[in-house]
Specification:
Keywords: Signal. By secondary structure, this protein is an alpha/beta fold. The chain has 3 helices and 7 strands.
Length: 165
């Protein structure tokens, strides 16, 4: 019984650490497929409300948030983002992409966390796979021309510490 509890705690720790979704007991290597200076690989989205978002139509800087509603690090990052000045900055567009979440989960999350920026459904990781293989939350900072400025894995107690354009 003691071994079962220890194994369960280890599994939970591995799952919560970085919110990786893997059944392997080995740590997943986080790979990032985009880097500073590249153009963002996707520029149009449809949010949970059916609105088309075209990044090329905005002259603002953008913050793409790749997250999952069930992930404690993502929840912390979204709370921090909602409470931050970034959320009120008229020169920054925030778009959050729910990895493996459906519309219902994202709508509930938006209500529970009082999210006032667009949420995008990515149930099959098609969007996420353009940016990385594992690890959430990820913050992708874009300039006004949709060029990647910085990518951040925003785990930890201060998820927005590295957000600077």
């Amino acid at each position: 019984m003691k071994q079962l509890i220890s194994a369960s705690l280890l599994s939970l720790t591995l799952l919560v650490s970085g919110c990786a979704t893997t059944t392997d007991s080995e740590q997943v290597e986080y790979l990032t497929y985009v880097e500073a200076g590249q153009e963002v690989p996707i520029t149009t989205f449809t949010d949970t409300q059916g609105n088309l978002i075209d990044l090329k139509q905005s002259g603002n800087a953008k913050l793409l948030v790749l997250f999952a509603t069930w992930c404690p690090d993502s929840q912390r990052a979204m709370k921090a983002l909602e409470a931050s000045d970034l959320n009120l900055d008229p020169n920054v567009d925030i778009i959050a992409i729910g990895r493996e979440d459906n519309k219902e989960a994202l709508d509930k999350f938006a209500t529970d966390y009082e999210i006032n920026f667009p949420l995008i459904v990515d149930t099959d990781r098609a969007i996420y796979a353009k940016f990385a293989n594992a690890g959430i939350p990820r913050l992708i900072l874009l300039d006004a021309n949709n060029t990647i400025v910085k990518t951040i894995i925003a785990e930890g107690e201060n998820p927005l510490a590295e957000v600077q354009w």
